[in-house]
Amino acid sequence: MTTSWAQAGAWLEQTGSGFLSTSIRARETGTELGAYASYGLSQNLTFGLDINQSDDSGFQSAHALAFARLPLRQRKAGWQLAVELGAGLGQRDADWTPMQRLTLSAGRALSWRGRDGWLAVDLGREWHDAGDAWKLDGTLGLHRSQGPAPIVQVELYQPDYGDLAWKILPGLRWRLSPDRELLTGLEWRSFGEARLGLKVELWHRF
Fold first, then answer.
1. Dihedral of the alpha carbons of 154, 10, 72, 46, in degrees to the nearest 10
2. Ordered structural domains, the chain, with CATH
3. Strand ranges (DSSP E) for the chain?
4. What global pTM score does this model have?
5. Per-residue pLDDT tens digits for 169-189
6. Domain of life, per the record (predicted)?
7. What single-letter DSSP state applies at residue 161?
8. For residues 172 and 159, what is the distance between their CA atoms, to the nearest angstrom?
9. pLDDT tens digits along 133-144
10. Is 147 left (phi over 0), alpha (psi -120 to 50) or beta?
11. HEC string of 56-73?
């Protein structure tokens, strides 16, 4: 089972169907580009790719990971649970080195005052030569039959040897077609020379 537009690891993709996202975050000190794809190979296996590249304040970072998502609990109602095993390469400045990620995801559909939506939480552990870290991402989204639908995303990043970094991303989702949505919003973060940025993301189901 999957929600209609949840970009979250708690739900497996249906066999033969998938999700594609491309994004840009624009800041005064640089830009960040991202691409994310997931595809249902079988009822119990979703395969995906997570690619990201950032050039911010003269500091370059990137990663390219392939992942497999496996079910822990998939039901018609209540909480959905899944685990992702990811591996690939990560970049810091000019060096590309092996990178691994393990993610535990939880999510559920919501209904509040006649409005439907979803809540998703992803807890990840990353291993990389540039530094191991914990990640915690949360998403709260609501659906609307007409007009823009609100969404709020929170991203936390805690390196083993460093300060906690956080980002808050409130935004609106615009339905372009039954299979495509545009997300526009702001990024407010705890670090860097430019704390405020803009985010644009295109979601596509196929």
1. -130
2. 17-205 (2.40.160.40)
3. 18-27, 30-42, 45-56, 59-73, 80-92, 95-112, 115-128, 133-142, 149-159, 165-177, 180-189, 196-205
4. 0.92
5. 999 999 999 999 999 999 999
6. Bacteria
7. T
8. 30
9. 999 999 999 998
10. left
11. ECCEEEEEEEEEEEEEEE
